[in-house]
Specification:
Layout: E1 2-3, H1 23-33, E2 43-46, E3 50-56, E4 65-70, E5 73-80, E6 99-106, E7 117-121, E8 124-130
């Protein structure tokens, strides 16, 4: 489901070019935010015509995911429920998260949110959002005066 409504009052992350130097800081930020539920990892990249966002959502049913776009901010939210017959106290490590999740990110270009498409394949959510015409690079021919 794709809509143009975004949840207000929550933190929105700005997009900057990826650099390995920032990875430890991003991991620390995700660790701090986990108290509010889990926040899925995302990849955001541009093609000539689109902005593409990919998020691994293993174990989450596509009908449990809601995607919205408002003012060039993408929000992904949903939930998963892990049913296990193992008692909590018998775990040695418990890293697989379940419950609700929420992620908002400012997109790196103006987009046509009402034309976005979302698909899920093998646990990977892929959202493709066309860029607005003014966000696409334009080539201008330069005339030389003689």
């Amino acid at each position: 489901m794709i809509s143009r409504k975004a949840v207000k009052g929550d933190k929105i992350m700005a997009i900057i070019k990826w650099t390995p130097f920032l990875e430890p800081f991003e991991e620390m930020e995700r660790f701090i935010e986990e108290g509010r539920g889990f926040s899925p990892a995302i990849d955001v990249y541009e093609t000539k015509d689109d902005v593409v966002v990919e998020a691994p959502l293993a174990g989450v049913k596509p009908e449990e995911v809601e995607v919205s776009i408002e003012n060039d901010v993408l929000t992904i939210k949903g939930g998963s429920k892990k049913e296990s017959e193992v008692d909590e106290k018998n775990y040695y490590r418990k890293e697989v998260r379940s419950g609700s999740f929420f992620r908002s990110v400012a997109l790196p270009a103006h987009v046509l949110g009402d034309q976005a498409k979302a698909e899920s394949s093998e646990g990977m959510l892929k959202i493709t959002i066309p860029k607005a015409p003014e966000a696409k690079p334009k080539t201008i021919k330069v005339n030389v005066k003689k």
